[in-house]
Every structure is written in C-alpha cells, then in structure tokens.
Specification:
The chain has 170 residues and is mainly β. The strands form two sheets. Strands 6-7-8-11-10-9 form a six-stranded antiparallel barrel. The protein has a five-stranded antiparallel β-sheet with strand order 1-2-5-4-3. A hairpin with a 7-residue loop joins β6 and β7. The radius of gyration is 15 Å and the shape is globular.
Length: 170
C-alpha cells in the first residue's frame, strides 16, 4: 500500500490517515530528497481516520509544516492538495473549499451495527486520488488546513468530491 503524510514536528512525528497504516507489518517513509527511513505507529484514531507515525530519522533541512486554523476556512477559499496519487510522488492539485462541516463514516463499527462518523470534514474540488490519503490540504499561506482523506464518486473513477479532515481535529 502507499499513501501520503506530512511532518508535524521536528521530533519526526508524521500525520497520515489510519487507513493508510492499518494492518502494516512495516512502514517505510520516502522523502522527496530520496532519503528513506522506517517508521512506527504512535497512535491511531479510526473514527477520525487519523494516525501518527514516528520516523527513525529526518533528512537534513526538512521542516515541519505549519498548522492553520480550520475554523477560519471559508467556502470559496483556494486549497492545495499534496500527495502521492497513483505513486506519483510530490503531486500538487489546486481547487477550492466547496463545503464545511461535512461528515464521513468512521472506520469502525459501533455496537449494534451502526458506524461512528467523523465530523468537521472539509469538502474540496481539489482532486483527492488514491495515494493522496494522509497528505496535507493547504491554504495559500502554506498552512495545513486539512488531511486528505477520501473521494466520493459515482463513476468509480477519480472524479468527484474530495474530503479532508479539518486541521483542528488533528
């Protein structure tokens, strides 16, 4: 499996999606510089579909991304999705925020058969394709406003509505 993530702090914590690391026997993190290292899962939240992993080391000069306030996000605001769609590293797509406060089903079944839901989801028309999961959704100031999570599509292809977990949930 492959996915994306982003550096949260200088100690090597990386934020991604829970579904990206679920069931992984080992995790390798590849940085844009070509530096590769192993990582361990620190924690997961299957309801929010978030995970934190920690890498063994960081390449020289890599800096954490600043986290923005997702409560300040407005419909119509530009958004940039960065990730690894279809294993194409370092891909960037541009769109707008098209909805706020959406909900998505969590990755866990509730007692009695229902599912938990993740609230405070940002909707965007920036393409969120397979492999973008866990990557940052940025504002034009370069701040993380969301964590790319899913695409909703009726066609079965990567054309539809993208969803990101709001940064304040992280």
């Amino acid at each position: 499996a492959a996915g994306s993530g982003w550096l949260y702090d200088a100690e090597g914590h990386i934020v991604t999606n829970q579904h990206v690391v679920e069931g992984a026997a080992s995790i390798e993190v590849d940085f844009a510089s070509g530096f590769k290292t192993r990582a361990e899962v620190v924690g997961v939240d299957p309801d929010a579909d978030l995970a934190v992993i920690k890498v063994d080391g960081l390449p020289e000069g890599v800096q954490p991304l600043p986290v923005g306030d997702s409560d300040a996000v407005k419909v119509g605001q530009r958004a940039v999705a960065i990730g690894n769609p279809f294993r194409r590293a370092g891909t960037m797509t541009l769109g707008i925020i098209s909805g706020l406060g959406r909900t998505l089903d969590g990755n866990r079944t509730a007692p009695g058969g229902g599912s938990f839901s993740a609230p405070d989801i940002l909707q965007t028309d920036a393409p969120i394709n397979p492999g973008n999961s866990g990557g940052p959704l940025l504002n034009l100031s370069g701040e993380v406003i969301g964590v790319n999570r899913a695409i909703s599509t009726d066609s079965g292809v990567s054309s539809g509505v993208g969803y990101a977990i709001a940064s304040n949930t992280v």
